[in-house]
Records
---
Amino acid sequence: MIVAMQMCSGVCADENINQLKQLLLKLPKTRPLLVCLPESFLVFGKSGQDALAVAKQSDYYQQQLSALCRLHDIWLAAGTLPISANNDRYFAASLLFNSSGEVLAQYNKIHLFDVDVADGTGSYRESNFTQAGENVVVVDSPFGKIGLTVCYDLRFSGLFSALQRQGAEVILVPSAFTTVTGEAHWQPLLKARAIETQSYVIAAAQAGQHENGRATYGHSIIISPWGDVLSELANGIGFIGCQPDLNQLHAIRRDMPVQSHQRFREHLL
């Protein structure tokens, strides 16, 4: 089973860990279980400096997450947490832990959110403090082959195609979408990526009004390889879940083999 958790993270990492601990107590008993967290679950700061400070303690927080995996016997896709890249930048890193607390993969967010949005914040410049990643990451798991992405990556179909070509069957999209862009584009983009790659798409989101002044869209969602919405949580803190049917996924890919029909493969990642 796979669960997408919706959170409303603040500026204090320890308080966000406590929020996560309370949510984990409410998990279903089904095992194996993969818990997916949203982008910036550990710290949703007022500036990149807040994340840089937490990045210097990333080993400490990774140890806490590892312990939670062992305690609850869960796999954990840790949305993003800041991990130092050099003295003045950090990676927005998505870590995948197994139920023994081992880190199996680290995906560093490739596409950085440097845009202007007609909301209360107005301007976003992730590249001021965040170091862009370079590697496409797919990991074997009991839940299928998992492809890792983060939030703004959703707008770049080439990355998703690259994940599918590397065997991804379940693609994670931990996010902190603004309310403006979320209302306009969130579900259409997620559905498109699921249909194009014929994969399950699991999008755990931040939701609500945050301590840093930002407002996020929420609407954590799970979409099937056929583009059906299997579960959605519009607002508030909580979680949704599904049991992926990989037999159905393989049947969809067999009956409509779009990847083998792809005529522009050489132009993709």
Note: The chain has seven helices and 16 strands.
---
Amino acid sequence: MGQLVSFKKENGIAVITIDNPPLNVMGQQVQQELKEVTEKVEADPEVVCVVLTTAGTKAFMAGADIKEFPNMIGNPDMRSGVMEMHNMLNNLDNLPKPTIAVLDGLTFGGGCELALTFDIRIAEEHTTIGLPEVKLGLFPGGGGTQRLPRLVGEAKAKELMFTGEPITADAAEKIGLVNHVVPTGDGLNKAMNLANQIADKSLQSLSRIKQAVDEGIEMNLKDGIDLEATLFTDVFQTDDVKEGVQAFIEKRKANFKHQ
């Protein structure tokens, strides 16, 4: 089997593509290659924003590879493998750069959990999203029980996981699971337009916004404000803030170095 995950760069944007037709399932190879690509993107100073897309329009990702599950049944030592998957997802979640996922079809199980690690989700109108693991006698084991309630609230998250029933893109937008719903075929264009709006900003600023929100949301307000004050002090020590302020004074567009 050839390479299933690749990325290309353009104008400060890394576009990651998962090409594992027909359903782009998250098998072991996809997980490993996604981990490697994430590490490359994080280390690349030219990349400011990341967009994830998948091959075809039938499925963004229809979950894990069920064919791998029989090897897990009754295996008391499977936790280490589960944690390898979590490490990969956590690396995506903690990437110190804004991330956008394009959902263009079935977004089920592990596919939904993968999407939840991204900062922004754009869904094409034919997309359906769900966590159907309960129908297999399982439950979401890729961070779904933790990330989904933090995003849409405890009650709605429990309903989705208890029933295992998918929801439409429009319903997902109403509960805050996706940011935008666009016509079928327009997802990547919408993502790239948004990414271009982000990619000319200061990575020093963007990374601190993400850190302040992601870490602060788990804190009480006082500690969150303390974190924000620390990061605000830090950003004033960077070359980018000098450039940004000077560009404003000179009434020109800032030219951030993205270092």
Note: The chain has a mean pLDDT of 95.
